[in-house]
Write a structure and sequence with these properties.
- By secondary structure, the chain is an alpha/beta fold.
- The strands form five sheets. Strands 1, 2, 3, 4, 5, 6 and 17 form a seven-stranded mixed beta sheet that branches.
- Helix 1 packs parallel to helix 9, helix 3 packs antiparallel against helix 4 and helix 3 packs across helix 6.
- The longest helix has 25 residues.
Length: 467
């Protein structure tokens, strides 16, 4: 029987990055993966393929709407969906092959099959052909991620009623796409198909989209998406569906008027969130504690109530984000090697890759009020920035929130061009306990988009210079 210091069950961002760090630290490491390729949801049917399609659809949209303003005239514009999907698949394949290479480079053993923990220190791997192999390890780390939540009246067929996985593989552009759930996944994938010609309607149960994010920032995004043609129906509780070929008809309750309404479309994307995936891991049999939603409960060292069994990523409390899982994998690897692995959850960034993008870190204004933290806010618009003007993308703003007792930055929210890249500056400032004064007095090359970050920092003290 093969023996290891550490076994990871799952090769998503948490599993593969954590395994590599364990190997770097001299721990004999193995990874178990049930799918044909490594990388988990993120690399195969999540973060990476969705960004590939977002980029392709954005090129098409820009060519048809903004190229002329730059003096670029396109007489006949068309797109090839097959080529877009092929490009997406190639990017995915390159990354999954890259993980295989990194496992070999770092001498990480990989096993294809479903992993089940029989006892602390003992894992059984069941291959696709039914062959069973048992492995021993001092530490077993569950990194099996999450799956889309399926509604009982909207069962996925991945053709007309689709999860995020199906929405990444549609073979033709739907005339009408209904998105159930106005969160990150729904807005991103809705944007892809809208740019390619679909009429998109988003149904959201809450009174606004992305209800957990900064209200002002999300309101700017919503108005921008509405200008692009996306329609939003909030306070809508979907209660049923019926396939009336070639359409899907949804029934929903208008929570404001308390009336029942119907809406039909060619495809329905259900994006009402995700849930931890721990099926057949053996956790229930071992008595591993979970909360009512199936989230695995762990201590500050990611250990469950059963010694030697750990969990990271989407299985445990916190936002279900690839980069959170990665950092948890690294922190746990370092702890197992006797080092002081640590994560600052106050600086976990969140991004919506729409156009414009939204990127946030830390507290929103609403959260600061709830916590009764005295705060100041500085905002600055992209329309006053020279680089944004040159790019022709001037929608949006940067917002910085500080604790007035110390000027320490406690939140940053960006809606605008390349927000995902610009946010890193605020994240690093927060990681070092930086203040708005620190950002305001730091050099920023001119002309650049990140000057808007500096101006927002200046605006906290009401001394922005470019307006």
């Amino acid at each position: 029987m093969a023996k290891f210091d550490v076994i990871f069950i799952g090769s998503g961002p948490g599993g593969y990055v954590g395994a590599i760090r364990c190997a770097q630290l001299g721990l004999k490491t193995a990874v178990i993966e049930k799918d044909e390729t490594f990388g988990g949801t993120c690399l195969n049917v999540g973060c990476i393929p969705s960004k590939a399609l977002l980029e392709s659809s954005e090129f098409y949209h820009l060519a048809g709407h903004d190229a002329a303003a730059h003096g670029v005239k396109i007489s006949k514009l068309e797109f090839d969906l097959t080529s877009m999907l092929s490009r997406k698949e190639k990017i995915v394949k390159d990354f999954t092959n890259g993980i295989s290479f990194l496992f070999k480079k770092n001498k990480i053993e990989s096993y294809k099959g479903t992993g089940k923990i029989l006892n602390p220190g003992l894992v059984q791997v069941t291959a696709a052909n039914g062959t069973k192999t048992e492995l021993e390890a001092t530490s077993i780390i569950c990194a099996t991620g999450s799956v889309p939540i399926q509604l009982p009246f909207l069962k996925f067929d991945e053709k007309q009623i689709v999860s995020s996985t199906g929405a990444l593989a549609l073979t033709k552009v739907p005339n009408e796409l209904i998105v159930v759930g106005g969160g990150v996944i729904g807005l991103e994938l809705g944007s892809v198909w809208q740019r390619l010609g679909a009429k998109v309607t988003v149904l959201e149960y809450a009174d606004r989209i992305c209800p957990m994010m900064d209200y002002q920032t999300i309101n700017i995004l919503k108005k921008s998406l509405e200008k692009q043609g996306m329609k939003f129906i909030t306070k809508a509780k979907v209660t049923g569906s019926e396939i009336k070929a070639p359409k899907v008809e949804l029934t929903y309750e208008d929570l404001e008027s308390q009336t029942i309404k119907k809406l039909s479309g060619d495809v329905v994307l259900v994006s009402t969130g995700r849930k931890p995936f721990s099926d057949n891991l053996g956790l229930e049999e071992l008595g591993v504690k979970k909360d009512p939603r199936g989230v695995v409960l762990v201590d500050q060292h990611f250990q469950t109530n059963i010694p030697g069994i750990y969990a990271i990523g989407d299985l445990i409390p916190g936002p279900m984000l690839a980069h959170k899982a990665e950092e948890e994998g690294v922190a746990l690897a370092e702890q197992l090697a006797g080092q002081a692995g640590h994560i600052n959850y106050a600086t976990v960034p969140s991004v919506i890759y729409t156009f414009p993008e939204v990127a946030s870190v830390g507290l929103s204004e609403e959260q600061a009020k709830e916590k009764e933290i005295p705060f100041a806010v500085g905002t600055f618009p992209f329309i006053a920035n020279g680089r944004a003007k040159a790019l022709g993308t001037t929608e949006g703003q940067v917002k910085i929130i500080t604790d007035t007792r110390s000027d320490k930055i406690i939140g940053g929210h960006i809606v605008g061009p390349r927000a995902s890249e610009l946010l890193g500056e605020i994240v690093i400032a927060m990681e070092f306990g930086g203040s708005s004064e620190d950002l305001a007095r730091s050099f920023h090359a001119h002309p650049t988009l990140n000057e808007v970050v500096r101006e927002a920092a200046l605006a906290v003290d009401k001394r922005a210079r470019q307006m």
